[in-house]
Amino acid sequence: MTLKILLTTAVAAMALAAGAASAEDLNPQTRANLEAAMHGEAFANLKYLRFAEVARESGNDELAQLFESSANVEANEHFAREADALKLDGTNDANLVDAMAGEQYENVTMYIGFADQAEAVGDLRAAAMFRQIASDEGDHYERYRAAAERLRQSR
Ligand SMILES: [Fe+2]
Ligand SMILES: [Fe+2]
Fold first, then answer.
1. Are both 78 and 101 inside the same structural domain?
2. How far is the CA of 73 from the centre of ligand 2 (A)?
3. How far is 50 from 96, CA to CA, in rounded Å?
4. How many domains does the chain have?
5. Rounded distance from Cα 37 to ligand 2 centre (Å)
6. What is the pLDDT of residues 96-114, one digit of tens each?
7. Residues 11 and 61 in one domain
């Protein structure tokens, strides 16, 4: 790396550290794009890890390593940088509120809707899976709600 690139990188890092832009300062479209990008990166990470398993089971270690190395970049570089830009990690209270909202949406709305749609077109096994996962998400919601309550009582 040349000195010029190093200096440019350092200046950019200082500008970020100075808090030039908090997540709230971001344009709503930029925030939405960051969310969409993070969904894609998280999905690619898990998908590539499954592809790597297939490659390894078929005896192709080189291909397995290619998928694993890409999966690592998607999660630990791309997702991580986008999450930092979005200031994803708040306080424990805020994180629990965020997690509860997601689990409740999946429990009450999303998976039930998916199950109803699958049933309507005769995909009964998929429908049953959606209902079972909806129930799991309800358990997740309940655990987060209880943790939030314990956190409040510990003060
Ligand atoms: Fe990526
Ligand atoms: Fe969940």
1. no
2. 24
3. 29
4. 2
5. 20
6. 999 999 999 999 999 999 9
7. yes
